[in-house]
Amino acid sequence: MNLNYTPEQIAFRQEVRQWLEEHVPEAPLESFDTKAGFEQHRQWEKTLAEGNWGMVTWPQEFGGRGCNLVEWLIFEEEYYRASAPLRVNQNGIFLLGPTLMEYGTEAQKERFITRMAAGEEMWAQGWSEPGAGSDMAAIRSKAIRDGDEYVINGQKVWSTRAVYADWVFCIFRTDPDSERHRGLSFMLVPLDAPGVTVRPIPQLDGLPGFAEIFFDDVRVPVENRLGEEGQGWQIAMATAGFERGLMLRSPARFQETAKRLVELYRSHRNDILDLSIEDKVVQSYMDAESYALATYQTASRLIKGGNIGAEASLNKIFWSELDQHMHETAMSILASRAELLPQAPAAGEVGRWLDGFLFAQSGPIYAGTNEIQRNIIAERLLGMPRS
Amino acid sequence: MDFTFTDDQQLFCESVRDFLQAEVTPESVREGWDSASGRNETLWQQLVEMGLTGMLVPESHGGMGMSELDFVLLAQECGRVALPEPLVETALVAVPLLANLAEKDPRCASLLEKIAAGETRVAIGHAANNLVSDAHIADWLLLPKGDQVHLLASDQVGLTAQQSIDPSRRLFSVEWHGDDETRLASGAEGVSLLAASLNRGALGAAAQLLGLAEAMVEMTVRYTEERHQFGRPVGANQALKHLMANCAVKSEFAKAPLYRAAYTLSESPSHADFAVSHAKVAAGEAALLAAKNCIQAHGAMGYTWECNLHIFMKRAWALDKFWGHAGFHKNRLHQWLMNPNAKIGADKTFGVQG
Ligand SMILES: Cc1cc2nc3c(=O)[nH]c(=O)nc-3n(C[C@H](O)[C@H](O)[C@H](O)COP(=O)(O)OP(=O)(O)OC[C@H]3O[C@@H](n4cnc5c(N)ncnc54)[C@H](O)[C@@H]3O)c2cc1C
Question: Where is the Acyl-CoA oxidase/dehydrogenase middle domain (chain A) (predicted)?
Answer without folding.
Answer: 124-218
